[in-house]
Specification:
- With 228 residues, the protein is mainly alpha-helical.
- Helix content is 69%, strand content 4%.
- The protein contains six helices and four strands.
- The chain has helices spanning 12-24, 29-54, 59-82, 86-92, 122-166, 181-223; strands at residues 107-108, 115-116, 168-169, 175-176.
- The chain has a two-stranded antiparallel ribbon with strand order 1-2. A two-stranded antiparallel ribbon has the order 3-4.
- Helix 2 (29-54) crosses helix 4 and helix 5 (122-166) runs antiparallel to helix 6 (181-223).
- 19% of the residues are buried.
Length: 228
């Protein structure tokens, strides 16, 4: 399933696990408050990303507005928690609706906090298409970030091996000196280099996979073959 608001691809396994946890903690006000607070914070972060991408000129002003809104919502949650108002959290999170691990009618998106439904309206389908384009853009950013990290990692690793060559001291008969500064520099550079290389490769394939998935989704939606 996909969140029609932010486009997050939510696996059936993730939904089943979350619904199962919710069922176990249906009367746990601390758990419900924590869940609601988490969705509000995730929604704030997601809206902030959209504003940064679509409305850079008013970014600071709208960020303050969103932050004030978040603070108000956090205060309400805190007040309801202090009042031990379990019914409030159950209503907001739809825990009183008939649901089980096999029910997909109500599920809160872990990224933006919106309700995810299996049957989308025409407006929600259009919103999902827009979100899919945003995810494709994020995928391209992942690829760019991955390639940048890969190049920097390779450079650091190459420089590190140059220092490794310098660790063979002529004054030591051409034998490797593991106590010299050059050898320690080699260790540091190679470790950082390979970490960046690994991160770059992961980000590259993660981005490619995201682009492929959402391009396929858009094709299915255009062909009328998509079913949530």
């Amino acid at each position: 399933m996909y969140c029609s608001n932010c486009g997050l691809n939510i696996s059936k396994k993730m939904i089943d696990k979350a619904l199962d946890q919710d069922t176990k903690h249906v009367n746990d006000i601390e758990y419900l408050a924590k869940s609601l607070l988490s969705t509000k914070k995730n929604a704030f972060k997601e809206e902030l990303k959209v504003i940064k991408y679509e409305d850079k000129e008013n970014y600071k002003t709208r960020k303050v507005e969103l932050l004030n809104k978040l603070n108000e919502e956090v205060k309400v949650i805190s007040d309801k928690l202090d009042q031990n108002d379990l019914a409030y959290f159950q209503e907001v999170l739809h825990v009183n609706d008939k649901r089980s691990v096999n029910t997909l009618d109500y599920f809160v998106c872990p990224r933006c906090g919106k309700i995810v439904k299996p049957n989308l309206t025409e407006g929600e389908s259009k919103a999902l298409a827009r979100a899919a384009h945003s995810e494709i853009h994020r995928g391209r950013n992942n690829i760019s970030s991955g390639m940048c990290s890969l190049m920097i990692g390779l450079i650091l690793a190459i420089i590190g091996f140059m220092f490794f060559a310098l660790s063979f001291k002529a004054t030591n008969g051409g034998v490797l000196d593991t106590s010299c500064v050059e050898f320690y520099v080699f260790i540091v550079l190679v470790v950082f280099g390979f970490v960046l290389i690994g991160y770059g490769i992961f980000n590259f394939f993660y981005g490619r996979n995201k682009i492929n998935n959402y391009e396929t989704l858009l094709k299915e939606m255009n062909n009328g073959a998509f079913h949530q």
